[in-house]
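dumping this here so i dont lose it
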């Protein structure tokens, strides 16, 4: 009788552990912090055509936060709300402005599409101040 009870407990315990692992889900399929930071950089590039001789590079994103949600039922497109800060360096005619980088609030919310090679920026919206 003791063997049956121990086996039943082991089976129940194993089932509960499997259920908990299944409920917690694996890693979310969403862009990485670096991809979100580079999406912000791409949005800046779109707003500052190269003909103006200006560009912005995102150089740091340790304090960047973001939450991505599915657009409708289509898991192939995500809207990502950004928060926190990114470090940027502005350039004019190839020369860095303000003696290096500055930290700013994340200025855009982004939309990403899933492609065969990963997530690609498909749109952005400037945050209102």
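and the seq i came up w/
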């Amino acid at each position: 009788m003791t063997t049956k009870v121990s086996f039943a407990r082991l089976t129940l315990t194993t089932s509960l552990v499997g259920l908990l692992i299944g409920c917690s889900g694996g890693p979310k399929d969403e862009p990485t912090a670096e991809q979100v930071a580079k999406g912000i950089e791409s949005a800046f590039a779109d707003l500052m055509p190269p003909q103006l001789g200006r560009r912005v590079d995102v150089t740091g994103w340790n304090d960047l936060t973001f939450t991505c949600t599915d657009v409708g039922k289509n898991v192939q497109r995500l809207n990502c709300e950004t928060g926190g800060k990114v470090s940027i360096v502005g350039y004019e005619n190839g020369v860095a402005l303000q003696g290096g980088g500055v930290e700013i609030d994340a200025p855009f919310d982004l939309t990403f599409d899933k492609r065969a090679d990963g997530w690609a920026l498909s749109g952005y919206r400037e945050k209102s101040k």
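The longest strand covers residues 74-92.
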